[in-house]
Amino acid sequence: MKKIHLFSKYYQSIAVIPIIATLFFSIQIKNLGISFIIIALFTKLFILLVIWFMQWLNNRKKENLYFYFNNGISQIELYTVTYLIDICILFIITFIVLWVF
């Protein structure tokens, strides 16, 4: 339960750009069809890689992630779970956009 809280805390710290992208992709999936979801998944992966790269450039000593490292969460685990959370949010919002609106 502690790790879930830590993952959600990290996702909240970077959530602005992925949520905006999720809303954009959900609208595009409604307009262009369900086949656009593959493009959305790869683009969201690219966005996460850009966020990682920007964090790496800003703090090369990775001092901002020591909190997570000290709690037993590796960097790969942190970004993998963040991507999975982001994909789940994409599917939930896409489902809402497709079936409700």
Describe the structure.
The chain crosses the membrane at residues 12-29, 35-57, 78-100. Keywords: Membrane, Transmembrane, Transmembrane helix. This protein is mainly alpha-helical. It has a domain at 33-100. Helices cover 83% and strands 0% of the residues. The protein is built from five helices and no strands. The chain has helices spanning 2-14, 16-32, 36-58, 66-70, 75-100. Helix 3 runs antiparallel to helix 5 (75-100). The protein is elongated, with a radius of gyration of 15 Å. It starts with a helix and ends with a helix. The relative contact order is 0.18.
- N-to-C SSE string, H for helix and E for strand: HHHHH
Our estimate of the beta-strand percent is under 5%
* Main sheet specs: none
Helix content: over 70%
Low-confidence stretches: none
First-to-last CA distance: 35 Å
Q: Report the structural category.
A: mainly alpha
Average pLDDT over all residues = 87
Total strands: the figure is 0
Taken from the alpha-carbon principal axes, the silhouette is: elongated
User: How large is the count of helical segments?
Assistant: 5
> What is the radius of gyration?
15 Å
